[in-house]
Amino acid sequence: MIPLRDNIPSRTVPVMNYLMIAACAVVFFLQLGDEQDGRADLVEGFGMVPKRISSPGEPVIIQEPKLARVRDQVGYVIVERDLGPAAISPWLTMLTCIFLHGGWMHFLGNMWFLYIFGDNVEDRFGHLGYAIFYLASGVAASVAHFATDPGSSVPTIGASGAIAGVMGAYLLLYPRATVLSLVPILYVLRIIVLPAPIFLGIWFVMQLLQGMSPGATGVAWWAHIGGFVVGAIVAALLSQAHALRPPVAERLPNTDHITSYRYRR
Predict the structure, then answer these.
(1) How many Cβ atoms are within 10 Å of 74's Cβ, its own excluded?
(2) Contacts (Cβ under 8 Å, ≥6 apart) of 31
(3) Is-contact 80 66, C-beta < 8 A?
(4) I need a surface site. Which of 37, 62, 140, 177 has the fewest CB within 10 A?
(5) What is the pTM of this model?
(6) What is the pLDDT of residues 31-49, one digit of tens each?
């Protein structure tokens, strides 16, 4: 599912949300020119490697494919090499890793979700509060991934965990919001208006199922899960303490030509 827009307007310009997107964009474009001899120095130096934290001082050996000639044929073989130390304290990479991305789809997908949901959360938290919340959600997501795979030698990167925290907060703060979504149904893309709890609930269940699947690799699913849960809890606590700005009125979308689910208040 791809969110296109929601029905919650913002009272102020989401300055911090734009700054987070801009920061990720700058780092991503630096990454594009970073690879040398098959090594991505920014990812390896500033990505979070759980083993660097759990086993400080020990060498971190990673396996990666390398193009080589084998028996007069050219193909890929798996080679091992030492990843080397982090560019900063391994503990700080729990924060720096959230500004790195693994490719165009990873970067664009994350920034689009942040653009859709982040402005409304910033509207309730305030600019400074939102910045602190976003960064803290990213660190919480890193901690969740570290706790579930402390011996991993693979660099973990991406803003997904921090954005998951934003989505968890959005779910708690705007339970009656609707999300205009692009949804594949039987190989046909349809535009559907979904209640935010359904959209975000489906997203969370997908992360949970993937995270619990045996042998699930390639994506830090528990970082998504941890970020979402922490974001929802923080938003709930602050809301009950009346520490957030009051919500704004919903914008009623024109859905005459769109298939939608009715959501009773």
Answers:
(1) 8
(2) 40, 42, 43, 100, 101
(3) no
(4) 37
(5) 0.88
(6) 988 765 556 789 999 999 9
